[in-house]
């Protein structure tokens, strides 16, 4: 029987939900039927706006705040969400620390530590806090937002690439450890994506980038969110341990 992409009755946590990509992921999961926990660190006004928007769609939403790179935050968020809306079926690790890119010789050591904390340790803390419930109910979706940069290894990408490649290793091991509980663990790897910020400003010069993309364009944030929704659904029930580029073919994992 053909299944539909239906998240009705599911509870999803999106970290970094007020960010350019996070907000579209949250809206898309809600549009597919899920109730949403919107995590933010600083932008409370945007979190409240998203909460009202999702509630207007007929879905439940809660906003939760905290530095997701700290070990005490994820357990606190788990308790807040559990007591308010119930157990989390879908975790989307989307939050990441932003920083200025430069060469290895000039990049500050704290930038490498920050990327490790937000790419690797965030997911470790989230797994420890939320996967026990998924094990209990024998099912769940754990989804991380990676990047095509992890395959490109271009100049000035070192801290970001190091963090995301570390994240990749963690997700592959976690997928093997929790698969027996019917929990899937996957990564979506966007390319240079068009977001709300781009649409509200002057068009950028992206010809150099799109020249290397087989589909000859940049992806839309909605296209990234669509891939997340697919992985969150029962349609992806036999996919785990995957790193899925959503970048028009700009990078292609090889066998």
From TrEMBL:
Signal peptide, first to last residue: none
InterPro entries: NAD(P)-bd_dom_sf, SDR_fam
Any Pfam family matching the protein: adh_short_C2
MF terms in GO: 3-oxoacyl-[acyl-carrier-protein] reductase (NADPH) activity
Region (Disordered): 194-213
Coiled coil ranges: none
Enzyme type, top EC level: oxidoreductase
Superkingdom classification of source: Bacteria
Keyword Magnesium among record annotations: no
Compositionally biased residues, Basic and acidic residues: 195-209
UniProt EC number: 1.1.1.100
UniProt keyword list: Oxidoreductase
Family matches, as PANTHER family: OXIDOREDUCTASE, SHORT-CHAIN DEHYDROGENASE/REDUCTASE FAMILY (AFU_ORTHOLOGUE AFUA_5G02870), SHORT-CHAIN DEHYDROGENASE_REDUCTASE FAMILY PROTEIN
Similarity comment text for this entry: Belongs to the short-chain dehydrogenases/reductases (SDR) family.
The name this protein goes by in its record: 3-oxoacyl-[acyl-carrier protein] reductase
Organism whose genome encodes this protein: Paenibacillus tundrae
């Amino acid at each position: 029987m053909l299944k539909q992409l239906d998240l009705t009755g599911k509870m999803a946590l999106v970290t970094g939900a007020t960010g350019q990509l996070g907000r579209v992921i949250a809206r898309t999961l809600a549009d597919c039927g899920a109730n949403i926990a919107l995590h933010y660190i600083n932008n409370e006004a945007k979190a409240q706006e998203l909460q009202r928007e999702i509630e207007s769609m007929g879905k439940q939403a809660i906003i939760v705040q905290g530095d997701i790179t700290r070990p005490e935050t994820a357990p606190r968020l788990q308790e807040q969400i559990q007591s308010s809306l119930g157990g989390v079926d879908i975790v989307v690790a989307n939050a990441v620390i932003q920083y200025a890119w430069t060469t290895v010789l000039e990049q500050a050591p704290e930038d490498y530590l920050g990327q490790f904390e937000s790419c690797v340790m965030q997911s470790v803390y989230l797994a420890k806090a939320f996967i026990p419930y998924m094990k209990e109910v024998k099912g769940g979706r754990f989804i991380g937002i990676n990047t095509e940069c992890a395959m490109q290894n271009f100049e000035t990408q070192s801290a970001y690439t190091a963090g995301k490649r570390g994240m990749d290793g963690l997700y592959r091991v976690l997928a093997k450890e929790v698969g027996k509980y019917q929990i899937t663990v996957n990564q979506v790897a966007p390319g240079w994506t068009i977001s709300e910020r781009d649409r509200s400003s002057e068009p950028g010069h992206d010809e150099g980038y799109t020249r290397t993309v087989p589909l000859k364009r940049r992806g839309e944030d909605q296209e990234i969110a669509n891939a997340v929704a697919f992985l969150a659904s029962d349609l992806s029930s036999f996919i785990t341990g995957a790193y899925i580029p959503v970048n028009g073919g700009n990078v292609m994992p090889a066998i």
